[in-house]
Design a protein that fits this description.
single chain, 253 residues, alpha+beta, 2 domains, 5-stranded mixed beta sheet, two-stranded antiparallel sheet, 10 helices, elongated
């Protein structure tokens, strides 16, 4: 543990540690994340987590935690224990769900007297994420607060209306696809620092998603269209994303 991590230690009180036999380390990891986010006025009920449910804890590997702000759900994070000497964060396959917005790595000391969030990865791919994330590639915990700040305006469907209209000219827009797109927008906003790169990153991901959602008979034509770098449709998508990101920035100011 380095000096920066020391400043992020979350003491685990005795009345929480006494549950270790029933909730295990996953339950403690959920509590640590809940307690950390309490500091920033986000609300969550760790006792509603699968890891704190006597039945679900045995039947699943989940350690889910729903995050709220002003009683409005921002999504669910997965709180995953990671050993001090582990080189990577291993994401349980069961935890790959559309409503996840991030996978959080939580380190506990041997005595379970403290925990600390050492990093996280946003839900980059909803259906088939990379299930093993190198420790060095985890984003710092401060970025988690940025992710939650972005999550709130992205729940406003009016912001996605123009993108939805574009999407529906190519494929069917479903709730599942909306959540997938939100994850990709969050990824672009988090992982890129300059707007042109943000737009291009999101556009390429959305083009790939449209291709996957396009009926097989129309897929070849869609691929050909995307390969045309000067196509009007490519320019239109990037223009839509530019306006969307600008709206998001105004929401976050």
């Amino acid at each position: 543990m380095n000096t920066e991590q020391f400043g992020l230690l979350i003491p685990i009180p005795a009345h929480i540690r006494q549950h270790i036999q029933t909730v295990g380390v996953r339950g403690l990891a959920v509590w640590v994340v809940s307690r950390y986010l309490d500091r920033y006025n986000y609300t969550s009920d760790f006792q509603q987590s699968s890891a704190w449910n006597p039945v679900l804890r045995v039947l699943t590997e989940l350690a889910d935690l729903e995050i709220k702000e002003d009683n409005k759900s921002l999504g669910i994070v997965e709180c995953i224990p990671i050993a001090a000497d582990a080189d990577s964060l291993e994401i349980p396959e069961q935890a790959v769900m559309d409503d996840r917005i991030a996978y959080i790595a939580v380190e506990l000391n041997a005595e379970q007297t403290w925990g600390t969030i050492i990093g996280f990865t946003p839900a980059l791919k909803v259906k088939s994420p990379k299930l093993s994330i190198a420790r060095k590639n985890l984003l710092p915990v401060e970025g988690l607060l940025d992710l939650l700040e972005m999550a709130e305006p992205l729940t406003d469907e009016s912001l996605l209306l123009e993108l939805k209209t574009y999407w529906e000219t190519h494929a069917t827009w479903s709730d599942e696809q909306r959540l997938t797109i939100i994850a990709q927008l969050e990824r672009a906003l988090l992982l890129q620092s300059k707007q042109p790169r943000q737009i291009e990153s999101a556009a390429q991901e959305i083009e790939a998603l449209i291709s996957q959602s396009t009926p097989a008979g129309q897929r070849e034509m869609a691929v050909k269209s995307r390969e045309d770098a000067e196509s009007q449709e490519r320019a239109e998508l990037r223009s839509i994303l530019g306006r969307l990101f600008e709206s998001l920035r105004k929401e976050l100011e």
